[in-house]
Amino acid sequence: MAQIKLSNLRHSYSPNPSSDADYALKKIDLTWDDGGAYALLGPSGCGKSTLLNIISGLLVPSEGQILFNDQDVTALPPAKRNIAQVFQFPVIYDTMTVYDNLAFPLRNRGRDEDIVKQRVMAIAEMLEVEDMLTTRAANLSPDNKQKISMGRGLVRQDVNVVMFDEPLTVIDPHLKWKLRSKLKELHLRVKATMIYVTHDQTEALTFADQVVVMQEGEVVQIGTPVELFERPAHTFVGHFIGSPGMNVLPCDVKGGAAFFGGEKVELEGAVQGTGDGAAEIGIRPEFVSISSNGSGVAATVRKVSDIGRHKVVEAVAHDQRVHAILEGEAPNHGDAVKLDFKQTQTRLYKDGWLASTPGGGA
Ligand code: ADP
Ligand code: MG
Description:
Layout: E1 4-11, E2 25-32, E3 37-41, H1 48-56, E4 63-68, E5 71-72, E6 83-86, H2 98-107, H3 113-127, H4 142-154, E7 161-165, H5 173-190, E8 194-198, H6 201-207, E9 210-215, E10 218-223, H7 225-230, H8 235-240, E11 247-254, E12 257-260, E13 263-265, E14 279-283, E15 288-290, E16 297-306, E17 311-317, E18 320-326, E19 336-341, E20 347-350, E21 353-354
Parallel strand pairs: 3-8, 3-9, 6-7, 7-8
Antiparallel strand pairs: 1-2, 1-4, 4-5, 9-10, 11-12, 11-14, 12-13, 14-20, 15-19, 16-17, 16-19, 17-18, 20-21
Helix pairs in contact: 2-3, 2-4
The structure holds adenosine-5'-diphosphate and magnesium ion.
Keywords: ATP-binding, Cell membrane, Membrane, Nucleotide-binding, Transport
Family: Belongs to the ABC transporter superfamily.
Pfam families: ABC_tran, OB_MalK
């Protein structure tokens, strides 16, 4: 296992990149600690696979270095990096049995057959595929093929890192949930550094201790699931994580206070910097409630969705859509209400970036 460090990394698929837009990865400085369970989360096209392929050596970056335990591996081919990578679609040998497929990465490295057997049986048990060991891979369902593909990634114990690139894409929804929890359990058992790439927030938040959020070739925030929920460093993270995501409302800032449609909104604390970039209030629907004392932001209810444990209210205030998640009673469609924003959870963003600090009134 290893600590993996990406230093001053940039990558362009174009031979003559001229502007930032020509880079699939803009500038990445990132350290993955030994033994960590990481998710790399971001929308399709943001550069996740590019980053993984640079770590594994399938791609050579245009600029920068990759260090495994402080050793520069930038010029090493994949086979010399000692990593395991599981792809979106199964990579297995159709003509071999499941047992031989799982054994392959070990036999390839000249391991003794008794070690091979021990590891294959352990992995087969974890993935619950013991009853398929003698089946030829060609005869497996797509779900099971991908399970075996994942098993091949996990069977060696001496790898620097195990990387999964959207591995559950081809898996049936009900099995997805099961495999997701299984992977978490596997990480606790194997203790290898794992990087799990996904565009699905639920997968990322269930698996990872640390989530790296990417947007358009850049890392916008690294944090625990709780940190990403509570203090999104960028409105993009606020939007992308949460269901519905954070409310982002344009505002004016005067004398350290925020005004939404002319109405003063109390922020969590002081506003950093004096620049007059586009300012927005960020507040999660979980911290918006219907005011019972007549104060708050005037709004009209447009939609109420009952989703079991709570209700999601969509209201419009100063021409902006505001979501509130309410437990218990909710107003009705068409009602005029006042919205209360919990002050300690009301943040200010400038040009998309978090610009308020906690600590009482402004
Ligand atoms: P993700 O895995 O997050 O969906 P990718 O890393 O696959 O994103 O892609 C990042 C960007 O690089 C996208 O704009 C994509 O179109 C581009 N890209 C990916 N692979 C290639 C390639 N082989 N040649 C040219 N452009 C590519
Ligand atoms: Mg991808």
